[in-house]
Amino acid sequence: MSHTAHIPSHRKPRRSASKLAVRAGVAGGVLSTLAMAGTASASPAAEPVTETLEMPVLNVDLASEVSSAVTTAAENTRAAAVEGELQAEEESARSGAATEAKQAKEAAEKKAKQEADRKAEAERATRNAERSALKTASAASSSAGQGVGTVTAPSTGSAAAIINFARAQVGKAYVMGATGPSAYDCSGLVQAAYRQAGISLPRTSQSQSSYGTSVSLSALQPGDILYWGSKGSAYHVAIYVGGGKFVGAQNPSTGIVERNLSYDRPTGAVRVL
Hints:
The longest helix is centred in the middle third of the chain and has 85 residues.
């Protein structure tokens, strides 16, 4: 066993750095004060000075307070930065939304204008088509007066009676099998009109289309019988009234009407008078 094993250590316990710093500061302050007092006592004319020094009270927790203040300042700075970023993002979002709304409005206005232009163009096309149809109808009517359906004889005597009766029935109803006086079918109207001239015709359109003498559509006279289909087996008949027109009981939807030959061009014609 060592001879010094039971000898207690004479080393003093190590002091903390903060306490040493505090004591060093106090010692320095005391030494400075003593030096000033010594200088004053060395002066021959100076009077004895009695001075009470108040030593500052040092707080050993100053470092923690400073650290806390620094931390708080850092947190405040970071919070301000975050708030600034949020405001910037909100402003950017508002700006982006406004831009999108403007673009959407411009797109909607452009689409509406295109639709309006399309409708206007369609209306112009429709009007042009209607004008073209009117010109075509007018030309057909004019050609009918000079070619097909040319009136080669005045509508006098028996023909006039037939035509006047037929025109007087315009507007009445079409009824299959009817022979008047309030409604007719096609052959019933022709038969009733010829009865005004004292002529008795067969009842059906097939028989009427083969009655009399065949004539060309380019040499029609008022009172001629027009037929549609083959001669002797026609499915429709009407009366030529001159001026390129005919009167006939067309169908249940139109009734008895007066139309241009171009409305429904007949197949042939026969002359009974």
